[in-house]
Amino acid sequence: MPRKINLTEKIGQLRAFYEQEGRAPSYAEMAELFGYRSKNAVYGPVQKLLEYGYMEKSRNGRLVLTTKVTGSIKLLGTVQAGFPSPAEEELADTINLDEFLVARPEATYLLTVSGDSMIDAGIHPGDIVLVEKGGVPKKNDIVIAQVDGEWTMKYFGKDRTGVYLDPANANYSRIRPERSLAIGGIVKAVVRKY
Question: pTM of the entire structure?
Answer without folding.
Answer: 0.60
